[in-house]
Amino acid sequence: MKVQSEETRIAMTNRLHRIQGQLRGVETMLNENRECRDVLQQLLAARSAVNSAMLAYMETYISECLLEQLEKDNDRSQREKLATELIGMLEKTT
Questions:
Q1: Would you list the DSSP string of 9-64?
Q2: How far is CA 47 from CA 31, 66, 67, in A?
Q3: Dihedral angle at the C-alpha atoms of 37, 38, 39, 40, nearest 10 degrees?
Q4: For the chain, what is the largest distance between any 2 Cα atoms, rounded to a whole number of angstroms?
Q5: 12-50: pLDDT as tens digits
Q6: DSSP state of 65
Q7: Contact by Cβ (8 Å): 19, 46
Q8: Which of 7, 13, 25, 64 has its CA 20 to 30 A from that of 57?
Q9: Phi, psi of 60, rounded to the nearest 5 degrees
Q10: How many structural domains comprise the chain?
Q11: Residue 10: inside a domain, yes or no?
């Protein structure tokens, strides 16, 4: 299962580039010996951006990948496996 939407791929790539920029900014702050509070604030912002990107991609995964696979597959055990995988992924987000 792969994301089919080029728009989704572009949007996710843009998000990841912004996150990379945030992390490079944190590295610069450390090299400049900036205040601990400022560095921590930027790390929290980067973590929030990663979480937001992950949730957006998970939404895409569910709508474009998972539901499509469920529509194709009439095998209950395969549907249960997909549900278990999704639950496992969600557990890792907490």
A1: HHHHHHHHHHHHHHHHHHHHHHHTT--HHHHHHHHHHHHHHHHHHHHHHHHHIIII
A2: 20, 26, 28
A3: 50
A4: 59
A5: 999 999 999 999 999 999 999 999 999 999 999 999 999
A6: I
A7: yes
A8: 25
A9: -65, -45
A10: 1
A11: yes
CATH code of the domain covering residue 19: 1.20.58.1000
Residue 34 counted as domain residue = yes
64 within some domain: yes
DSSP designation for 93: T
For 57, counting Cβ atoms within 10 Å of its Cβ (0-12 exposed, 13-18 middle, 19+ buried), the class is: middle
Residue range(s) defining the domain that contains residue 68: 6-92
Whole-prediction pTM value?
0.76
Residue 1 counted as domain residue: no
The string of pLDDT tens digits covering residues 65-85 is 777 777 776 777 777 787 788
Half-sphere exposure (CA, 13 Å, Cβ side) for 8?
A: 15
Tokens of 16: 């990841």
